[in-house]
Amino acid sequence: MTGQGSVKKPLELYVHIPFCVRKCGYCDFLSAPAGQEVRRAYVEQLLREIQNAEALSGRYEAATVFFGGGTPSILEPELLLRILAELRRRFSFRPDAEITLEANPGTVDRDSLFRYREAGVNRLSFGLQSADNRELELLGRIHTWETFLESWHLAGEAGFDNLNVDLMSALPGQTVEGYRETVKKVQKLSPEHISAYSLILEEGTPFYERYAGQSGLLPSEDEERQMYYDTKELLEAAGYERYEISNYAKPGYACRHNMGYWERTDYKGFGLGAASLLENVRYANQRSLSEYLKGNTADTAEALTPQAVREEYFFLGLRMMKGVDPGAYEAHYGPLLQKLQEQKLLQRKAGRVCLTDRGIDVSNYVLAQFLD
User: Could you tell me which residues come within 8 angstroms of residue 65 by beta carbon, excluding any fewer than 6 positions away?
Assistant: First the structure.
């Protein structure tokens, strides 16, 4: 326990809801459809897991909460609000805590959105992916562009003024102009935050079986790169700041929860397969739903070596446009930093090291250099 009057450390809370209406063809997340009985049993076990973590509250104060999945909004509102209420009972929350709920268009309605907002959820993240209904059908999404617009307007009526929209590029059959139209349509809605990712073919997914090795079915490398550039051009012209490789926000609306991951803030994950980082020890929860429901929640714990901490600091931190302060690691990485600067992949600004535009283009290569 902390002493009287001592300042508690910030802690990020993540809650994994592993349920969805149906599995999308590209998705390799730990999620699947489930009936109401299973969902309710899962929430009961989740509440027990949260109760068992109460000891952390002596050292930490919740700075952010993020309900991810899966599709958290598939839960009946009373179940999700029970989880949030339990977190509030077990942890002290900062007055300005950011509380995010991931939601798929079509899984929310006026009543649920008003209830989420009244309970303190202050940030919504909509998984749109595309404004083209043909692309949405190909992806296996349950919504259309029109469904998204309906959910979007209902969120505004409920009082949400911090909304994110997820977009995907390099989809099968997608053209550069088609992707630009999606970005333009979303930008006109003026969300506070936009996350823009390229499709990754993950092994074990239907998309991998269908498209891996079939380059003619996907946009070319040049087309994918152009989509990447167009995202930056269109959003920056509309007043968005790129603060991380794949994330853009209006001033003051960067996702604090995700920033915490990249800055290695301590976080505690609850639910199936959830990960935690506490005092440089990484924990992972059970990934078997049947075992989790039995109460066997924990799986692994790994104390990070000084080398692993050093690698993570650069590998994660350099994803942010503000970069990192090399500080105590300058001696170790000095020659590498110098080499990458000479290659015009890194630059120094006000004592910090960050990616150049060219470095962003080959960020996977640059970040991999810091893995000894």
Answer: 12, 13, 14, 15, 84, 87, 97, 98, 99, 100, 257
Q: Which two tokens stand for residue 285?
A: 């929860």
> What is the mean pLDDT, run by run of 10 residues, along the chain of 372 residues?
65 96 82 90 97 92 96 95 97 97 95 96 97 95 96 97 97 96 98 95 86 83 95 97 97 97 97 97 96 93 96 96 93 94 96 96 95 82
In eight-state DSSP terms, residue 320 is B
Cβ-contact 85, 77 below 8 angstroms: no
Q: Measured between alpha carbons, how far is residue 317 from residues 257, 259, 274, 309 in Å? A: 14, 9, 21, 11
Residue 186 CB-density burial (10 A; 0-12 exposed, 13-18 middle, 19+ buried): buried
CB of 123 closer than 8 Å to CB of 162: yes
The answer to whether 126 and 171 are in contact (CB under 8 A) is no
Determine the pLDDT at residue 3: 43
Distance (Å, whole) CA 81 – CA 88: 11
For every residue of 57-77, DSSP letters joined together read GGTEEEEEEEEEES-GGGS-H
- The answer for residues whose C-beta is within 8 angstroms of residue 281's C-beta and 6 or more apart is 301, 302, 303, 304
For residue 252, give the amino acid letter. Answer: G
pLDDT digits (tens, 9 = 90+) for 147-164: 999 999 999 999 999 999
Tokens encoding 113: 């959105």
What are the phi and psi torsion angles at 273 (to 5°)? Answer: 70, 5
Q: How far apart are the first and last CA of the chain?
A: 37
Structure tokens at 346: 């890194």
What phi and psi values does residue 245 have, to the nearest 5 degrees? -45, -45
Quote the tokens at residue 262: 């990249």
Query: Using CA atoms, how far apart are residues 223 and 229, in angstroms rounded to an integer?
Result: 10
Percentages of the chain per state (helix, strand, coil), in multiples of 5? 45, 25, 35
H or E element, residue 137: helix 133-139
Q: How far apart are CA 235 and CA 223, in angstroms?
A: 18
CA distance 129 to 141: 9
What six digits make up the tokens of 36?
């109401």
